[in-house]
Amino acid sequence: METLIERASRDLLRSKHAIALTGAGISTESGIPDFRGPSGIWTKDPEAEKRAYQTYHKFLRDPKEYWEDILSGRSLLGNLENAQPNPGHYALAELGKMGILKSVLTQNIDGLHEKAGSQRVLEYHGSVFKLRCPSCGSRFRHDEYNLEALILEGQLPPRCGKCGGAVKGDVVHFNEPIPSDVAHESLEEAWKCDLMLICGTSAVVYPFAQLPRIARQHQVEVEQKAKSGLYFVKNEAAAVIIEVNAEPTPLTSEGISDYLIQGRTAEILPKIVEAVKELSR
What we know:
alpha/beta; Rossmann fold; single chain; 13 helices; 6-stranded parallel sheet; 2 domains; 3-stranded antiparallel sheet; 11 strands
């Protein structure tokens, strides 16, 4: 593992536009449950998953009922306001402050990357701390709306201050399209990166899982010199793709990633940061 950590640190230092993709595995180490793991929310309660598949349709059919259900229910993930980043989150934030990591694309909705100090975070599946208007794409902080007062006044659903459309939670539900701005920026980042650090994701939830495959498809022309002395042009992968995961994923078996550093993100990512610092001295 030490050899792979050094390899990753060298690859990061050589990169011009490195990005990170993160999933539930980086947040479980902050005490936040995942959904599909052995002790995941859907694993323990399949009925909750079935209900979750109806949430977006409920918003489209009756936004008022959608909000009444949300405000009367308990979050499946617990109180995320009290959740704190772990060393994995802080390591990615530090790579960003060093100018190496240009962005973090995350499936997580817990806001821990921003809390840890990462500057450019693309929340692919939204955030529990924001509201969003599907009509115009505007986002709002939760504290911009007094939801309790709207209930008492019979004014649900909250309305967008820009277009007047019904506002929903920012979290992307089953069967709901990924917001176009995040989808576009994420595709752009995947296409132009020359290093992708994949941390704590099983890489089975689409379309997020397509991003490493898009990065792998991108090739560049590299001029090389043959033994004869003549130069020729060869197509090579534009991005180095590194996995930091507890277990191999389809990216590993399909050869999408260049190599896997197997273990806990909270343990491995800080070691990579220390190795980067050591090589930079």
